[in-house]
Amino acid sequence: MEDDLRQRFGDVESALTQVGAQLVLGTAVMLIGVLVAVKFRGIALGPFWPAVLKLAAVSVAPDAVVNVLSPALAVIPLGFLIGLVVEFCLYFALLGVFFDLDESDTWYVVCVVFVLNVGIYFGLKAML
Fold first, then answer.
1. How far is CA 13 from each of CA 41, 56, 103, 104, rounded to the nearest angstrom?
2. pTM for this model (two decimals)
3. Could you read off the pLDDT of 62-113 as tens digits, one per residue?
4. Domain span at residue 81?
5. Which residues lie closer than 8 Å to 103 by C-beta, 6 or more apart?
6. How many structural domains compose the chain?
7. Residue 99's closest CA among 59, 44, 57?
C-alpha cells in the first residue's frame, strides 16, 4: 500500500524536507539581505517577528505557485521561462505589498537579496 502511494504521489518525505529547508534557509538568507537593505535605505519593516513571518511567506509562496502551475507549464513551449517570470513577479509584488515599499525600495531589496543568494551559491560551490 505504501509503495503504491509513493509511486502515485512521489516521495512526500523528500518534498517536505525540501520545503522545510527552503522555508528556514531561504527565509534566513532573505532576512539577512533585507536587513542589509534596510540599513542602507532606511526602510521601516515594522516589528521583527511579523517581518520574519512575512519573509517566510515571500520565500515559499512564489515557488509554491509555480509548482502548482508546473503541469500546465510542462506542456507549453518554454513554459519554464513563464514559470520563472511568474515566480519573480510574485516575489517582487509580495515584498512590495507586505512591507509597503515603493518600487525603487522593492528593486533595491530584490537586488540585495539576489546578490547575496548568488554569493552564497558560488561560495558553496567553491567549498565543494
1. 41, 20, 39, 40
2. 0.75
3. 888 988 998 999 999 988 899 999 999 999 999 999 999 999 999 999 999 8
4. 2-127
5. 96
6. 1
7. 44
